Amino acid sequence: xxxxxxxxxxxxxxxxxxxxxxxxxxxxxxxxxxxxxxxxxxxxxxxxxxxxxxxxxxxxxxxxxxxxxxxxxxxxxxxxxxxxxxxxxxxxxxxxxxxxxxxxxxxxxxxxxxxxxxxxxxxxxxxxxxxxxxxxxxxxxxxxxxxxxxxxxxxxxxxxxxxxxxxxxxxxxxxxxxxxxxxxxxxxxxxxxxxxxxxxxxxxxxxxxxxxxxxxxxxxxxxxxxxxxxxxxxxxxxxxxxxxxxxxxxxxxxxxxxxxxxxxxxxxxxxxxxxxxxxxxxxxxxxxxxxxxxxxxxxxxxxxxxxxxxxxxxxxxxxxxxxxxxxxxxxxxxxxxxxxxxxxxxxxxxxxxxxxxxxxxxxxxxxxxxxxxxxxxxxxxxxxxxxxxxxxxxxxxxxxxxxxxxxxxxxxxxxxxxxxxxxxxxxxxxxxxxxxxxxxxxxxxxxxxxxxxxxxxxxxxxxxxxxxxxxxxxxxxxxxxxxxxxxxxxxxxxxxxxxxxxxxxxxxxxxxxxxxxxxxxxxxxxxxxxxxxxxxxxxxxxxxxxxxxxxxxxxxxxxxxxxxxxxxxxxxxxxxxxxxxxxxxxxxxxxxxxxxxxxxxxxxxxxxxxxxxxxxxxxxxxxxxxxxxxxxxxxxxxxxxxxxxxxxxxxxxxxxxxxxxxxxxxxxxxxxxxxxxxxxxxxxxxxxxxxxxxxxxxxxxxxxxxxxxxxxxxxxxxxxxxxxxxxxxxxxxxxxxxxxxxxxxxxxxxxxxxxxxxx
Length: 759
Hints:
The chain contains 27 helices and 11 strands. By secondary structure, it is of the alpha+beta class.
């Protein structure tokens, strides 16, 4: 059977997705409508915590204290501002007593106490103008949030002679959740129209530009429905919604760009619509599938961590990646079958081309004016220049990336607190007042839980030994109830500073006549860092091993998978360096509108690595697959690199710019961690597409030469049997004599030059 006949034959998958395109789109529309209903209100069911290890001793101690001593773990604080009268004024004290009694009568509130009851100096501001009422709202995050919503309006604001503000950890989490949802809506309103404009600029055709946007919306709505179902089983972080929007739009654009671009190529070369769809699925479709798998694996690695904050991103990421790929491989081909050549309709760039009166441009959609034979377009010329000076570009680019990453060597890990919120948020205002004006605060120190019972002398002996530790500022207690007791230990310096973290280890090592366990903010941080350190090698190992395998199956090379992993990791250095320089050290904090805490939340680097590495592999697979296709066709290594970059350079850059726009929109959030996530990944994506793929990859592939494609005999035979290549079947190209490749010198001409403007 001839190559042309073989290429015209539509495989089973193609027949499946193109046999009834109208029915496919109708079913998709119905499913999307159901997803809208199923996913409604998902944000209200999400949590804003999840940084702690549920199996850690600090978590056990926290739960035990909540059960045995509710007052020891206050999560609701009412800041009572007495103004000029002072908190000891009789009228102020009477009103505060009434507020305390009203709060104690509220359902779901336990452990209510106040300065006016205990006269504790920790509950009174040093200037005497403010004091605290502390309590605990019971229940999980969602239940506690609902209780807060119910009671806060009754206590907030003017109450007789005092002004009351609502704060505490439960208020911080609740306000953070509300702000994130508001910011996400604003980000979507920014990202969607800007993305559409960029897609129109890239495609020219308004019809083609709408396709990626539609795929992204389907993926986002479907993922919201999936997350809504997961919230019925386990906790999910509200931060994961940001990743859903960013990846849903970004990956849908990536996949649709790749597929629509290849479909338009096939049409421009004379293929029939059905044949063009079939070839597109066998080539670009396979690449999209492999790309989706590599991204999903990177995100799935977060499942090994115990913190539900990280696991939530795995749930959201895997769902949105698979849904974006499924929509691109099922719905998009059906739409292309119905549109056919109309995919090039409403070419808005034609007006500008006419004004420029470009010779030879007949206005045919999807075409570009041919340049000089062998020019290879802008990206082809870039690749040629880079490979001509490969050692210089390789060393200079790698050195520059390493230098950009050097600030990360000074990273300090901490925990998220109220300073994540904007300075005007009520919960932050309360915490700032407590932080700056009170000698201590409920929950601000470390709690030592004692179990098993002990005598008063044994408790006193333990208290004296702890008080003598060099990092202890003060110890209170014990508070005893049956066989349980607890001490409150205030560390010197910051509540989560290095002294406090060191004190956690000292308290855990201190012998006692009873069983002890330590909790508090610093203890949770120490346990979280330990959990991440224990599981990080496994997560990285999963990513590396599966990525190596997938890229080998795509290329059949031993060296290319190693290069891909190494260069992807190198592309992330700028992101990590910027995170420390900007967010930890506080540079640009005024411009970006956040408060630097002097550290980075422990889970953020792990999350950013997994997401950015997966996106880098996404672009890497697009480039490598096209280089591999051309190398299989002609056997000319250097020409294959030039051809691959010329054909995908504009596409990858366009996709990266669009994804960066989406991530920057996410980065406009008023919550610092979300800002860091959005802006950091935007930087990583741009650096990967415009530096690593454009400069470092061609330079390294020039240096490795034909050895790039080497594999030992057993692995080569394994790939021949199980591997998949985008160039495995490309009948239209074969039938047309090599897709415009000049047989004399292997340079790209004619059809290749058609693609010099992105897609």
